[in-house]
Every structure is written in C-alpha cells, then in structure tokens.
Write a structure and sequence with these properties.
This protein is mostly helical. The longest helix has 16 residues. It is elongated and about 95 Å long.
Length: 93
C-alpha cells in the first residue's frame, strides 16, 4: 500500500483551495444561452392560441338551445343508433 498516494489525494480535496485551471476556465465561459428552434417557437404560438380559445362555442350552444326550446331540434333515430353503436364498439376495442 502506497501512503504517499493518499497524501496526494488529500491535497486535492482540501477545503477552501480552488483549482486555478477550473477557476480561470469558468470565468472565461461567459453567459449561458438557450436557443429555441423554429419548430419549438411555432409550437409555443399554437399552444398559446389554444390556451386563449374559448372552451365553449357560444354560437353553436345558443343555436341548439333555441332549437330545443322551439321544438324544432330533431335527431334522426338512425343517426342516434349509429353514434351509439360507434361509441359502444370503440369502448370494446
């Protein structure tokens, strides 16, 4: 066992002692930068547009409410059955 190697290792890890090569390298590095790709920027714009879009389309809701209240809203039994079967088949898949 080499005792002098332990002494060399202990000198490296002395508290308060800064490695000169490390200190000069970090000082000359400058500021960190972040560059966002054009695809990332486009994604951010789309995400913001979706965030600002209303959750409910008030014009559609108002039209349907008026038609239901007037008794003019009619749902085809065939369309209803087709949608019901489609939803049931998707639930089983």
């Amino acid at each position: 066992m080499r005792i002098d190697a332990i002494t060399n290792v202990a000198q490296i890890y002395q508290p308060g002692k800064t490695n000169k090569a490390y200190a000069s390298k970090t000082a000359s590095m400058g500021k960190d930068e972040v560059n966002i790709s054009s695809m990332g920027q486009t994604f951010q714009v789309a995400k913001e547009a979706v965030k600002n879009a209303p959750d409910v389309r008030d014009d559609k809701v108002a039209d349907l409410k008026a038609r239901i209240e007037n008794g003019t809203y009619d749902v085809s039994a065939d369309d209803f059955a087709a949608k019901l079967l489609e939803k049931y088949e998707n639930a089983l898949a």
